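Bumping with the actual sequence this time:
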Amino acid sequence: MTKSDAGEIPMRRVWPLLILLLAAVATVLVVVAALSRLWDVEATPEWPGQASLEGKEPALETAPQPALRDYLAGKRLILDSYGWVDPTHELARIPIEAAMRALAADGALPPGAARPQYLMGVDRMEASP
């Protein structure tokens, strides 16, 4: 062997791999064809004709700003108010300001009966007699 042939791979080693690869691809194609026939898959779906699309308005809005403004106002109202999320499990929501105040409080939340008053926005000074 010469130096130029030393880095080349002999073809007798490549042919079995190529044949194995082609056999694997053929097997996959046969399995896909059999499954599509078994499951009755059509090659192309039936698209609605042009007549069924006539008279329908487009889904896009020409001026979405008022709808977005109303949507964001509704979300802001939910964020800034008290309310029940799930009354059966006694799960409620509180405004963001009250939640931040509760998280930023030194130590834990007040114990026992003072905790709901604290979360409802009543300061400690007002709650204590």
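The tokens above came from a reply further down the thread. The longest strand covers residues 83-86.
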